[in-house]
Amino acid sequence: MIARVHLIYYFTVSVIIFLLSDALSVLFPTFLEFKISYFLKGSVFFFYLVLAIKILSIKNLFLASFFVIIFATSQSYLFYVDKINFIGLIDNLRFFIWYFFGVILIFLFNKNDLDSIALNLLEKLNKVALLIITIVCISVLIGFIFNLEVLESYDGSRWGYKGILSKSITTSYFFIISLNYLYYDAVILKKKNFFFTLVLLCSLLTGTKSIYLFLLLLLFFDIISQKRYKLKSFWFVFITIVFLMVVFREKILKMTDFVTGLFYRLYQEKGLMYSLTSYRSEMLIDGINYYRSQWNWVNYLIGGRLIEIRYFEMSFFDLFYFFGSIGFLLFLYILIKHLIIPFFKKTAISGLFIICSVLLVAFFSGQFFNNSTVIILFFYFLLLIRLNLTYYEQDKHPKHLHS
Fold first, then answer.
1. What is the mean pLDDT of residues 128-143?
2. What are the start-end ranges of the H helices in 184-314?
3. Tell me: the pLDDT tens digits for 75-106?
4. CA 318 to CA 383: how far, in whole Å?
5. Cα dist. 13→128, 308, 356, 379 in Å?
6. DSSP characters for 154-168?
């Protein structure tokens, strides 16, 4: 019972460890030689594995273990037909660990006794979350102000800053998830919080299209859900912005060339989808053709990632090619039944938007289900949202407060 009550604290400590690991790998690259990141994150994974064995039901453990069976079978088959070597097996094992980590977290997500968290402790947890967001934002701002190469999102011509996070895609998901958390706190729970605007502005400095896609989704959701279209002020602002964009379109294009220039050139060369997906449409086609030439019907059932293609950089395609149709459908079943539906029941349409907005971005981007930092951040902020909602409802209905 203790483990269930304090699971949110485990998530908090885990997030701090994972972000520390990322920061060390960015600021002190020599740490990679000593595998410090592997040790820190591996220790967290082992802890959650033991925790899952102790508190999950037999049914949940069986469903989780099914992924072990699928992975072991697919890798054995690839090795048998000489499609992979020992080094490839080790590489795939690393991918599997973080996929399996995500499955465990999905099952653990509903093992929290949320009502037993004291209000003063929840306030401390929210302060820790804000501190984490602040540190990442400051690192992005430092990279932007001082033009530090070590904090840049990309190598080469693309512009943007990822801060202390290890990858640009990690930074994208971090801001998407944290902005969802801050938006829910400020708009849905009606708390006065100007921090959301500051983080939003900072997120634009990452230079990733995932952020811009999410912000468009959030803007559209906010206008519809909050019925801002009924306000005269909304239409005044909307018409003013459109007018200014038309009048000053040339200056705006010049000012935003660091973001749009590269993608416009890609659009001219290879078309809209190639530009919008940052090469992923071509990578996807090449990858599908390669797997079609290497796979047979067994692989389509149980998967089998080939190391010649590292990622598809589209999370759901990566998931399918790793676990095959059986594992892919089982993963979606677990995700929907044990995460999306329970979260939706607690948080209504706003909670559904949070999850769906992240998953939609993941569909067009890679490394969601198998990025350890991203997946722990995702569940950490979802738990905080649920906790904040619990106390918000108790404030509205004091008779439900615990003594």
1. 95
2. 195-203, 209-225, 232-247, 249-255, 257-270, 272-276, 280-294, 297-302
3. 999 999 999 999 999 999 999 999 999 999 99
4. 26
5. 10, 36, 26, 13
6. -SSS---B-TTSSSH
pTM of the model: 0.88
pLDDT at 156: 64
For the stretch 257-312, pLDDT in tens is 555 555 555 545 555 444 445 556 677 778 888 899 999 999 999 999 998 876 77
Q: Is residue 189 very low, low, confident or very high in pLDDT (cuts 50, 70, 90)?
A: confident
What phi and psi values does residue 392 have, to the nearest 5 degrees? -65, -45
> Using CA atoms, how far apart are residues 396 and 69, in angstroms rounded to an integer?
48
3-state class (DSSP) for residue 152: strand
The neighbouring-strand residues paired with 152 are 161
Estimate the crossing angle of helix 372-396 against helix 7-27, to 10 degrees: 140
Domains in the chain: boundaries: 2-400
- Token pair, residue 208, equals 């990733």
Residues 6 or more apart from 209 whose CB is under 8 A from it? 263, 276, 278
pLDDT tens sequence across 315-368: 999 999 999 999 999 999 999 999 999 999 989 899 999 999 999 999 888 789
So what's the pLDDT on residue 252? 56
Query: In one letter, which amino acid is 250?
Result: E
Please, which pLDDT band fits residue 396 given cuts at 50, 70 and 90?
low
The answer to whether 259 and 293 are in contact (CB under 8 A) is no
Q: What DSSP character marks residue 188?
A: I
Q: Please list the helix, strand and coil fractions of the chain in percent, rounded to the nearest 5, in that order.
A: 80, 0, 20
CA dist 117 → 40, 120, 226 (Å): 27, 9, 30
Distance of CA 51 to the CA centre of its chain: 23
Distances (CA, A) of 190 to 138, 185, 296, 380, 385: 26, 7, 54, 21, 13
Measure the N-to-C terminal CA separation of the chain; round to a whole number of Å.
19
> Rounded CA gap, 57 and 37, in Å?
31
From the list 23, 354, 47, 373, the residue with the least C-alpha distance to 185 is 354
